[in-house]
Write a structure and sequence with these properties.
single chain; 143 residues; alpha/beta; Rossmann fold; five-stranded parallel β-sheet; 5 strands; globular
Length: 143
């Protein structure tokens, strides 16, 4: 009989997952469940750059007031923010140099790799990294 793992599950939320939750898009329920289960057994992280992306996307779509409201609500979620440091920057740079990811997505992928976590996202551009990091895709948006 397998012994249950005592290691916590580690999740990293991509900006697209955060926006799915905020905009109540397909996949929002999965993000809500991960956040509901956040605690000692399930840790939920976000890369620092996702905070900026979340704010600017809301700002462009809904204006400054709604962006600020959304940002304040985001900060109330049980998320741990991973800030930039030299090691993370080098991992992100290596990912950026060897893939077609945006700079922001390279930082997010690097965060996931460093934490040995699972990236929850709805961005097909992460798919080339499926051998490098664990991916949990939400339903992709139609173009």
């Amino acid at each position: 009989m397998p012994v249950p793992s005592k290691q916590p599950k580690i999740f990293v939320l991509d900006t697209s997952a955060l926006l799915s939750l905020r905009e109540d898009e397909a996949g929002a329920d999965a993000v809500e469940q991960v956040l509901r289960e956040a605690g000692p057994k399930n840790r939920v992280f976000v890369c620092f750059i996702s905070l900026m992306e979340f704010f600017y996307v809301l700002y462009q779509k809904h204006g400054e007031t709604e962006a600020r409201r959304g940002y304040l609500e985001l900060k109330q979620l049980p998320l741990r923010v991973i800030e930039s440091d030299e090691e993370l920057g080098l991992i992100a740079a290596q990912i950026k140099a060897t893939t077609k990811l945006s700079v922001a997505d390279a930082w997010i992928a690097a965060t996931t790799e460093r934490l040995h976590g699972t990236l929850i996202h709805k961005d097909p551009e992460f798919e080339p990294l499926k051998e490098r990091i664990s991916l949990a895709p939400l339903p992709y948006k139609n173009p």
